[in-house]
Design a protein that fits this description.
By secondary structure, the protein is mainly beta. It has a single domain, classed as Medium-chain alcohol dehydrogenases, catalytic domain (Quinone Oxidoreductase, Chain A, domain 1, Alpha-Beta Complex). It is built from one helix and five strands. It has a three-stranded antiparallel beta sheet with strand order 3-4-5, with no helix packed on it. Strands 1-2 form a two-stranded antiparallel ribbon. Strand 1 and strand 2 form a beta hairpin. The termini are far apart. The protein binds zinc ion (ZN). Zinc ion binds next to loops.
């Protein structure tokens, strides 16, 4: 059975790899939305922002799942997809895509 895990901030100087809930396509306020995707993480890294949180230099709530610079494969998408996003597409959400018209 597949598991979902993340690096969880416990407190200054302490993180743990923990099992976390499978994500849902909802807004941060838990309101349902029709657009968005869920990714299977292909690769990730530790960012300077994460290091500042772990070392207690910035505020972070205990239980925060760290990591925001990822490359992933689309495995689920919302019903309001404008097209062009298919299962299996690999994306890098944090990559700069250049200026848009
Ligand atoms: Zn970062």
């Amino acid at each position: 059975m597949a598991t979902n895990r993340g690096v969880v901030y416990i407190g200054p100087g302490k993180v743990e790899v923990q099992g976390i809930d499978y994500p849902k396509i909802v807004a941060p306020n838990a309101k349902e939305v029709d657009h968005g995707v869920i990714l299977r993480i292909v690769s990730t890294n530790i960012c300077g922002s994460d290091q500042h949180m772990v070392r207690g230099r910035t505020t972070a709530p205990s239980g925060l799942v760290l990591g925001h610079e990822i490359t992933g494969e689309v495995i689920e998408k919302g019903p309001d997809d404008p097209g062009g996003i298919d299962a299996g597409l690999e994306v890098q959400p944090s990559a700069y895509a250049g200026d848009t018209p």
